[in-house]
């Protein structure tokens, strides 16, 4: 899972959002955002909930929450390891 996907899932873990809102929060261009949203939907991590004009409201699925949690564990451990390595080298 890439950083864009993690950012989108993290935002959606707090509640449903429109594609336009996600674009504003993340700064991801609309074209790239739509591409990433479609990819997440195909994987079963998110689902469309409603349409408002030309915008789509999406929400994270239970499967998406599980994937986000697995990545959180991995990233948390990676950050801890980085901190240990850097603090050993730079006395922090």
Automatic annotation (TrEMBL):
Residues of the HTH marR-type domain: 3-49
GO molecular function, one term: DNA-binding transcription factor activity
A matching Pfam family: MarR_2
Stated name of the protein: Transcriptional regulator
Organism: Saccharolobus caldissimus
């Amino acid at each position: 899972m890439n950083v864009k996907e993690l950012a989108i899932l993290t935002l959606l873990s707090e509640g449903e959002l429109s594609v336009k809102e996600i674009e504003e929060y993340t700064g991801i261009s609309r074209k790239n955002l739509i591409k990433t949203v479609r990819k997440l939907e195909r994987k079963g991590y998110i689902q469309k909930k409603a349409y408002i004009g030309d915008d789509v409201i999406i929400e994270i699925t239970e499967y998406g929450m599980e994937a986000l949690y697995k990545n959180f564990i991995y990233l948390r451990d990676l950050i801890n390891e980085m901190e240990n390595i850097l603090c050993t080298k730079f006395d922090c």
